[in-house]
Amino acid sequence: MIFDSIQNKENYREYEMLYQILCYLDSLKQGELPLPDTVICENRVFCNPVSLTSKPEEACIYEAHKKYIDLHYIVAGREGIATADVKSLTESVSYNAERDIAFYKGSASGRYLLNPGDFMVCYPSDAHMVAIMENKPENIEKVVVKIKVQ
Predict the structure, then answer these.
(1) What CATH number does the domain located at 2-148 have?
(2) Which of 87, 90, 117, 122 is nearest to 105 (CA)?
(3) In sequence order, which residues have a C-beta less than 8 Å from that of residue 14 and are 6 or more positions away?
(4) Phi and psi dihedrals of 20, rounded to 5?
(5) Where are the alpha helices (DSSP H) in the chain?
(6) Which NCBIfam families does the annotation name (predicted)?
(7) In what order do the strands lie in the sheet with 45-53?
């Protein structure tokens, strides 16, 4: 898992794919969201805009993926994300290969508050609970980048 700010994108220059993604995200105009299924790297990386409202942690659930790494990039609002190793959680909805997702219950090993310009990379072993509110529900606009696992 990686948690950082787009302002630090130069730190990732040696990681070619990640750096290319961060440069794309940084090139978006303030408040701009990409079109659905925007391809960043042919056959490997695409992204989708997501608009949602944060909610209490009790109303959220962990998710994890096997075929894709998720990169969450906040455009507007603040989003709490809890993380845990998939192996430490209990599967609540079995893996759906077509949707590349399984859902889990359990306790967080880390909690993060993402502000505009922040990003988080979640690998297949990183279950992540998204849309957690800080003090009150808040509208969030973000980009979710899907990076195919090789």
Answers:
(1) 2.60.120.370
(2) 90
(3) none
(4) -60, -40
(5) 16-27
(6) YhcH/YjgK/YiaL family protein
(7) 2-5, 118-122, 68-76, 139-148, 45-53, 38-41
C-alpha 147/C-alpha 51 separation (Å) is 20
Look up the pTM and report it: 0.96
Instruction: Write out the two tokens for 30.
Output: 């303030």
Identify the residue whose tokens are 């075929």: 67
Structure tokens at 12: 């990732």
Query: The tokens 């967080």 sit on which residue?
Result: 108
Number of CB atoms found within 10 A of residue 4's CB: 15
Closest residue by Cα to residue 116 from 11, 33, 16? 33
Would you kindly state where each structural domain of the chain is located, as residue ranges? 2-148
DSSP letter at 28 equals S
Q: Which among 125, 91, 79, 83 is positioned nearest to 107, based on CA atoms?
A: 83
